[in-house]
Each structure stands twice: as structure tokens, then as C-alpha cells.
């Protein structure tokens, strides 16, 4: 009897899955799926580290400073401001749905979220905290020592453990259930006529050649300025800084369009202040097409339908420092 019940449940799940798949429209953009949390304790530790300002030399900058989860996973600045009020060279990309990207950073120099997580901690224009000192801070806090032991099985904390926990938390930062996703799943009332016209124009213009998949982007590197040169004062060279190949100059990771109404300003240098400006520039420079104001309005209306459910978080209570914890130096 037990085997028969098990088979019945399995068949039911297959039927349900097939029914769900059958309702999803055949489009170049697919729905975002909810996060699956396999290790809640690791995710909770990663969340604490995400909001932990003691991982910065100043004691006031955390991952959330530049990737504010209340603001679409960005800071809404042209380029981020780091330690000592230093201005970074590029716009801070959203962390939301970043687990769906082909690589991390605009130039793709980090292969995955864990590899990315350690960079900003020690970067002098960001958190300016040597990894050795960051580990000394965490190791001196009894609450963290106990939590790392519970998750990783050992008391001696290393950077692989730190970045693995942060990455586990970042993997939960997905935004399903946008109105566009509901339309993709068969809800004809999810989009109005203007929004649907905008999506049709978006597709017919060729935008989906780069902005496709669940994240509507993030899966390729493309040259900024295919038809017309892109003028920028940013020192960022794009993919060539990683590959050393001159042909990769000004090739940047295609950004996700998920939650794009929240992640202004746009492009690697933050030069496009509004969605309307971004659509106009992309049309002319990438497609050789000058959109009318009406066409821009339709595309922007569509883009705003891709704002999904934002991560709902309980703010973590960080463990207190001990007398042995190295103190921050905001002016170093």
C-alpha cells in the first residue's frame, strides 16, 4: 500500500508540473521561480554578514549600503560611494536575481556569487577591510564563532565560509510574481493594452536578443554602442579588463531588467537617469532605431510590469563585539 501511495503522489506531482508548464507562454523571457532554501541556518548567517558594518574599516559600510534591499538592491547613485567618501568607477548593479547571471560584476571578473562576495570587503574604494582583519573581527565575536560552528562544523572562521554564507543569502534574493510573470503564466488580465503593446515592440525591435531568460538579461556580454559609439567619462573598460583582449573593450554584462523601475540610474556609468532616457539611448546605440515618445512610453510601461515581489526580511540582530574585537577606524 505504501508503494502505491508513493507512486500516486509522484504521478500527481508530474501531472501538476506538466499543467503548470503548459500554462506558461512560449516567450523569450520566462517567469522567475521562488527561492528554495536548503540550509536556513546558513542563509540566516549570510543575512547577518550582509548587514554587518564591522566587515568594513569604517564600521559603517555593509553589503547593504550599496545594494540596499529596500531600494531594489541598489543605492540609486550614479556610482557608489565607499570608504573615505571615495567614488567607485561604476554603477552598483542590483543584487536581486543576481544568482541567475552568467557571472558577477559588470566585467564578469567573478564567476559566481561566492567569488564576488569577498571583493567589496577588501576593495579600498568600497569597504577597505583586509580579509585578515575581517576574520579577526568575526573570530573575536563569540556569537559569530558559535554560529559559524553550527553551520560549518568548525570554530576557526575562514573567508570561504564567510563568502559561502553571504552567497547562500544572496541566492534567496529573487523576485517572483511580477505582473509580467502572471501574464506569462496565462493571466490575460495582468497586462493592459499599452503594456502589452510595449512588450510586442520590445520583442519586434530585437531587445530580447540580449534581454531574455528568467532575469531578462544577465546571461551575456555585449558591446556598449554597436551602431553608434557610447560616450562616457567612466574609466571602466568592460570585459577587456578581465580577458586582456582588446576586442572585448566596452563589452559589459547585459543587466537584468527585472525590477528595473527601482534600479535607476542606468548603465555601467549611471549616465541614464530615467527609464525613458535608457530606452532612447539603447534604441539608437544598440539597434539603430529612434523611438518616438509614444513608443518609449509603451516600452517603459512594459518594463515596469517586471517589478516582482521584493524580499521580505526580518532585520537581523547582530551579535555584540567582545573586548578583543578590533575597533573601526572611519578615518583611516
From TrEMBL:
PROSITE patterns: CYTC. It comes from the Bacteria. It is found in: Periplasm. It holds the Pfam family CCP_MauG. One of its GO terms (molecular function) is peroxidase activity. Keywords: Heme, Iron, Metal-binding, Oxidoreductase, Periplasm, Peroxidase, Signal. Residues 41-168, 193-307 form the Cytochrome c domain. This is Cytochrome-c peroxidase.
